[in-house]
Amino acid sequence: MKFDKKMAFRIYDEFPRDSIIEQNDFLFVTTSLPNSNRLYSYILSFGEYVEIIEPQEIRKNIQSQIKKIQEKYQT
After folding, report:
1. What phi-psi label fits residue 24: left (phi over 0), alpha (psi between -120 and 50 degrees) or beta?
2. pTM metric for this prediction
3. Spatial contact of 15 and 29, defined as CB atoms under 8 Å apart
4. Given strand 50-51, what is the order of strands in its sheet?
5. Cβ neighbours, 10 Å, residue 27
6. What are the Cα distances from residue 55, in Å, to 13, 63, 73?
7. What's the CA gap between 53 and 36, in Å, rounded?
8. What is the spatial distance between Cα 21 and Cα 53, in angstroms, rounded to a whole number?
9. What is the SS3 string spanning 16-68?
10. How far apart are CA 61 and CA 14, in angstroms?
11. Per-residue pLDDT tens for 27-53?
């Protein structure tokens, strides 16, 4: 996962330090989390400050959920 450094306070609280790499204005986290609805809610709780790099399956599922949310707010 790629996080904006604005989320550093959460990232350092929620992930082991050895799973975090700082690079420019971003924090990259490598971790293993169960693939479930709770995972997607957790990822989405970071809003615009997170990008799933891999696995592609989770990235695509997040994109799908974002599209569904966006459809609800189109007027």
Report:
1. left
2. 0.89
3. yes
4. 20-23, 26-29, 2-4, 50-51
5. 24
6. 23, 13, 28
7. 17
8. 14
9. CHHHEEEECCEEEECCCCCCCHHHHHHHHCCHHHEECCCCHHHHHHHHHHHHH
10. 22
11. 999 999 998 999 999 999 999 999 999
